[in-house]
């Protein structure tokens, strides 16, 4: 009987579909196991390759499989989809995972540690609270607009809304005034939680070596540095800085054929959180450069003369991504680019 070389697992909350195959891809078994049965089966099985889609619980099971001596391969779901045959079900998915994992050129996801996932929880919770605060502010603006009171968009104009609510001459009915005060209290409560998480992120960024190193680059703050440490794979997986920028989705989408290069809009196919934070950081650098005038980097000055600021921000974020790759692979802090002809 052929030896089981790889097991594809279609993960779920309670029912796990397994597909065992040899090194040549020959099907050796198909099993459907409960959560407890799956943990026991993999603990007793001889070490082999375990392939899974990189979903929510995949990193937990990757750590468990590694503890039992298995070699884990996590695959992004959109790389598995082309290998699904006809019908979409758990059996077909598990088989497709094996087919994808056996491809010699397949790209795999690096399993995250428990500490990385804990930092991701902090980051995601802050993002969720920001959305809740924005929703509450927009709801408050909409309520006051019903009575003819208008304020510009943004949390910076929240005091103006509070003045309208507290002003007895604003002609607000008492019922509406009381409800708007409840909304203000909710916004204040959520803001306090956001500030607490921001302080936690700042503390973590000061304690860790990588975030401290990343923050030496203009445009990278504590939140961006923590996001890179949490969501980015080890930099040695990328051959050059451009590969890291492409992984973030900061390069043009290609539609090339027949030797003709056709480049489109930014691909946006990578890690959205890091990409967004790098573009936001690049915009802060651009705003500073516009205030400084001629003292900025000549490349940035030339770009701002020819392109809109948002386009320049994406280009600068691309350069920042390549610089981050160089900093982390060489273990160096950020160094200002040398300007030709400078004294």
Write up this protein.
The protein contains 13 helices and seven strands. By secondary structure, it is α/β, with parallel strands linked by helices. The protein folds into three domains: 6-101, ATPase, nucleotide binding domain (Nucleotidyltransferase, domain 5), CATH 3.30.420.40; 114-207; 210-254 and 265-330, no CATH class. The strands form two sheets. The chain has a five-stranded mixed beta sheet, with helices on both faces. Helix 7 (174-207) crosses helix 9 (222-231), helix 9 (222-231) packs antiparallel against helix 11 (272-292) and helix 10 (241-247) crosses helix 13. It is globular and about 85 Å long. The mean pLDDT is 89.
Summarize it.
By secondary structure, the protein is α/β, with parallel strands linked by helices. The protein is built from 13 helices and 7 strands. The strands form 2 sheets. Strands 3-2-1-4-5 form a 5-stranded mixed β-sheet, sandwiched between helices.
Properties at a glance:
single chain, 343 residues, alpha/beta, Nucleotidyltransferase, domain 5, 3 domains, five-stranded mixed sheet, two-stranded antiparallel ribbon, 13 helices, 11% strand
Rounded radius of gyration (Å): 26 Å
Structural class: alpha/beta
Instruction: Return the string of H and E elements.
Output: EEEHEHEHHHHHHHHEEHHH
Helix content: 40-55%
The largest sheet is:
5 strands, mixed
Overall average pLDDT = 89
């Amino acid at each position: 009987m052929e030896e089981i070389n790889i097991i594809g697992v279609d993960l779920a909350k309670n029912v796990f579909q397994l597909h065992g195959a040899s090194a040549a891809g020959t099907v050796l078994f198909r099993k459907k196991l409960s959560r407890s049965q799956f943990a026991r089966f993999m603990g007793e099985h001889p070490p082999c390759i375990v392939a899974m889609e990189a979903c929510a619980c995949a990193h937990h099971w990757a750590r468990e499989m590694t503890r039992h001596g298995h070699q884990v391969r996590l695959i992004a779901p959109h790389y598995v989809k082309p290998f699904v045959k006809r019908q979409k079900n758990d059996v077909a998915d598990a088989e497709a995972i094996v087919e994808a994992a056996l491809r010699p050129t397949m790209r795999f996801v690096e399993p995250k540690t428990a500490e990385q996932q804990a930092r991701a929880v902090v980051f995601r919770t802050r993002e969720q609270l920001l959305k809740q605060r924005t929703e509450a502010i927009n709801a408050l603006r909409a309520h006051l607009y019903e009575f003819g009171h208008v304020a510009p968009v943004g949390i910076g104009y929240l005091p103006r809304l509070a003045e309208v609510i507290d002003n007895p001459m604003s002609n607000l009915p008492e019922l509406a005034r009381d409800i708007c005060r409840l909304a203000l209290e909710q916004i204040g409560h959520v803001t306090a939680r956001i500030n607490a998480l921001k302080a936690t992120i700042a503390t973590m960024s000061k304690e860790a070596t990588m975030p401290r190193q990343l923050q030496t680059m203009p445009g990278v703050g504590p939140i961006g540095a923590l996001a890179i440490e949490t969501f980015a794979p080890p930099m040695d997986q990328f051959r050059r800085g451009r590969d890291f920028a492409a992984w973030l989705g900061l390069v043009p989408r290609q539609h090339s054929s027949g030797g003709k290069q056709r480049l489109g809009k930014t691909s946006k196919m990578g890690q959205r959180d890091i990409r967004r934070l790098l573009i936001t950081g690049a915009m802060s650098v651009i705003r500073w450069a516009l205030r400084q005038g001629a003292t900025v980097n000549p490349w940035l000055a030339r770009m701002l003369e020819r392109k809109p600021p948002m386009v320049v921000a994406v280009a600068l974020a691309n350069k920042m991504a390549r610089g981050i790759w160089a900093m982390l692979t060489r273990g160096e802090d950020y160094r200002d680019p040398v300007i030709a002809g400078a004294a």
